[in-house]
Structure formats: structure tokens, C-alpha cells
Amino acid sequence: MSREQAEAIARTLRDSPLDTGGEAVAQRALFAQLMASRPRPADLVVDDIRLGDTPAVRISTGPAEPGLAVLYFHGGGYAIGTAAETVGLPGQISARNGVTVLSVDYRLAPENPFPAALTDGLDAYRAALGAYAPSRLAVAGESAGGGLALATLLAAGREGLAMPAAAFVMSPWTDLTLSGASVDTKADVDPVLYRAALDLRAREYAGDRPRTDPLVSPVFGDFHGFPPLLVQAGSHECLLDDAVRLAGRAAADDVAVTLDVTPGVHHVFQAVATLLDEADAALRRASEFLFRHLAGAAAPAQTLIG
After folding, report:
1. pTM of this structure
2. How far is the C-alpha of 304 from the C-alpha of 223, rounded, in Å?
3. What are the pLDDT digits (tens) for 15-25?
4. Which of 2, 22, 25, 117 has its CA at a distance of 20 to 30 angstroms from the CA of residue 224?
């Protein structure tokens, strides 16, 4: 990694008008502008679809491997961003793996607090299981979307639904109680998140639900029966302990888990893979993980999503 690359990106993020702890409606417009300015993979194809009753976008780049898909949950603190605005990172996953990515446009807080996003996630997961064999489906997400991906699988497990072949989360927000030490110890080096911002977004999302509920804060969940799990994070982020503690909890519950921490980089650094060498390398490792668990799976189901 070029130290200059990482420092330049961190300066740009600090200087951005986007404030992760600002009023949600105003920050949504700024976030949309930021996402529009980021490069996207060439030949990206994005289609509006529905997964059950939940809107989503289908993302592909070039010829996709038939019958393989990743169900994806975007970040934004449960309050900011849409599936259409955030296609860059799932587009990278599609391009690198030759798979279709289905990005869920779940409802946002504060207008729609818990359990709205989880309800949408579970609805989308059921629809994905109707279209893809579980052995040919992975679930992924970043930041709050990483937490929602995990909560969706926890809820699916409680309902007896089949687990996917793999799960992959980047900088996941897994503890809305903010009890991880890194929320404070990494505050000086995190250019994106800070305690007050996280506390606001957590209050908006959790509403009246206790933040210790595993479906709100998956780090407190029971991961027995989970598929192989890849957890990536940067060492310069307030949510580092969310990733580390998640990996420990999953390992204690007999999950095949890989914790992949990249030093000196920020929250969801993979989103700037075209600018940061270590982000590109992290996505390569994620691609190898997904390929290993999706390759050679059984024939896909015949139900179509449209």
C-alpha cells in the first residue's frame, strides 16, 4: 500500500461535506453526490427488480455465471443511501466474480425504524432462495449493511430457512450499543465515523427495541449453523472491534470464519479499490473466498426474479 494513497483518501473524506452524524434527509443528498462521483466498473448493467415485496437492483458486469448470485446490503448507518446509488462496490464484486449481485433497497430510519429493514432483508432473502439454490447463493454487505446481512441470516436461521454457501461483510456495524473500545480509541484516525454519529443513527434505527437484541446488534447473536464467513475491516476505523468481536463470537459458535484486517485504512476502504492498492487486494481476497464456496455448486433452481 502507498501510505500517500491512504493519507490522501483520508484527507478527502475528512474534507467532504458529508457528515455521518448529520440530519438524515440532508445527508442523503450529499451521499448521493459522493456516490455519483466514484468510478464504476465498465459495462455495468443495473436493473430495477423486486425480491418478494422488496425493491432491489440487479447488478451484473458482462456475462454472469448462470445460477450464481450474491444478495447484497448497502451501508449508510441504516439512514442514508439507496441500492441504486451504491452500485459501485457490489459492481466490483460482480465484475471480479462473474456473479449477479442483488442489492436490497431496504427501508431507512428514522422514518422506518427496526424492524422495517430486517423485514425487508428477510423478504429479499426468501425470494433469493426461491431463485437460487442455497449452495449457489452468498450474502454480503458493508457497514450497517453488513450488520443487516448478519441479522437477516440470524432471523432466517430462527425460521429454519436454508443458509447460503457463504457470507462476506466489510466493516460491519454489529454492536449498536457502541461498547467496543475502538469507537473511542480509533476516533482520531477514523475519517468517516465518530461516537456521536453512531449513537444518533443507532437511536434512530433501534427505536424502542433494546440495542442488545441480536437482530439489532448481531455481535450478541448465536451463529451456530452459519455458513463460512469472511469479515474484513481496516485498522483505522471506529468499528474495528465490531469486526474483531464478531469473528470471535462466530468462531466460538463453530463457524469457519476468516478475519481480514488491513492496517492503516479507513471504514469500507474497499469502495475505493480503483484508488487504493490495499482495497484492490482485499477485494481479490474476497473474490477468492466467494469463488471457493460458490464454485462447483449444484444446478440452480428454476424460479426467476424479475
Report:
1. 0.94
2. 30
3. 889 999 999 99
4. 117
